[in-house]
Amino acid sequence: MLGLTGVAARIFGAVARARANTLLISQASSEQSVCLAVDSAEADVAVMELRRELAQDLSAHDVEHIDVKSPLVIVAVVGSGMRGTPGIAGTVFAALGAASINVVAIAQGSTENNISLVVAAADGDAAVRVIHNAFAL
Question: Which of 73, 76, 92, 97 has the most CB atoms in a 10 Å sphere around its CB?
Answer without folding.
Answer: 92
